[in-house]
Specification:
- The complex is a heterodimer of chains A (about 110) and B (about 120).
- Chain A is built from no helices and 9 strands.
- In chain A, the strands form 2 sheets. In chain A, strands 1, 3, 4, 7, 8 and 9 form a 6-stranded mixed β-sheet that branches. A 3-stranded antiparallel β-sheet of chain A has the order 2-6-5, with no helix packed on it.
- Chain A is globular.
- In chain B, a hairpin with a 6-residue loop joins strand 5 and strand 6.
- The chains are: A mainly beta (about 110), B mainly beta (about 120).
- Chains A and B meet through strand 3, strand 7 and strand 8 of A and strand 4, strand 5 and strand 10 of B.
């Protein structure tokens, strides 16, 4: 039950694209397509942004996309906007009905 | 509209107990797995526990096994977390979350638990 590894911070200018990685093992990220991503603004509850690796819930802008290769999942934000500045966490199913979150990434819009 | 509202948090001494509640509304509570997720001050999210729709199965992160107990009352649309033998490292905001197909698709606003003497 070790946390998934994310970069501590990623930054970009408005309109640019950024990618956040989420590295786990074959027992979590690599073993299942139940990878999801959450956005959290300061003092707020997390919000689901991507589920099942690359699917967007209704209402989430298509600027947000997800993918996975082997034990690493990625979240890409295209056309970065000021309101995208937040913390982002990945999560993966990890067998036996348990879950694990990533270490979190602070996204800064320059 | 899905709503999850946590209650029962507060200040407790090390070794003490606390029971969190989560009141659910806006969806059919009894058909969903439910979870507790916590976030220590300034830290990341940590999955704590899961419970099956009928309460027959519960799963926990290793650090709380034997100390925490997740339960539910479907007729009251309520989720609970009984926390015993609390430690300073259990200090966190605790979120109630709905689980749907491998994702946490709805979250409560969170409730703060502080373990300190």
């Amino acid at each position: 039950q070790s946390a998934l590894t994310q970069p501590a911070s990623v930054s970009g200018s408005p309109g640019q694209s950024i990618t956040i990685s989420c590295t786990g093992t074959s027992s979590d990220v690599g073993g299942y397509n139940y990878v999801s991503w959450y956005q959290q603004h300061p003092g707020k509850a997390p919000k689901l942004m991507i589920y099942d690796v690359g699917n967007r819930p209704s209402g989430v802008p298509d600027r947000f996309s997800g993918s996975k290769s082997a034990n690493t999942a990625s979240l890409t934000i295209s056309g970065l906007q000021a309101e995208d500045e937040a913390d982002y966490y990945c999560s993966s199913y990890a067998s036996s009905s348990t879950y694990v979150f990533g270490t979190g990434t602070r996204v800064t819009v320059l | 509209e899905v709503q999850l509202v946590e209650s029962g948090g507060g200040l407790v001494q090390p070794g003490g107990s606390l029971r969190l509640s989560c009141a659910a509304s806006g969806f059919t509570f009894s058909i969903y797995w439910m979870s507790w997720v916590r976030q220590a001050p300034g830290k990341g999210l940590e999955w704590v526990a899961n419970i099956k729709q009928d309460g027959s199965e519960q799963y926990y992160v290793d650090s709380v096994k034997g100390r925490f107990n997740i339960s539910r009352h479907n007729a009251k649309n309520s989720l609970y977390l009984q926390m015993n033998s609390l430690r300073a490292e259990d200090t966190a905001v605790y979120y109630c979350a709905r689980v749907h197909g491998g994702k946490f698709d709805s979250w409560g606003q969170g409730i703060l638990v502080t373990v300190s003497s």
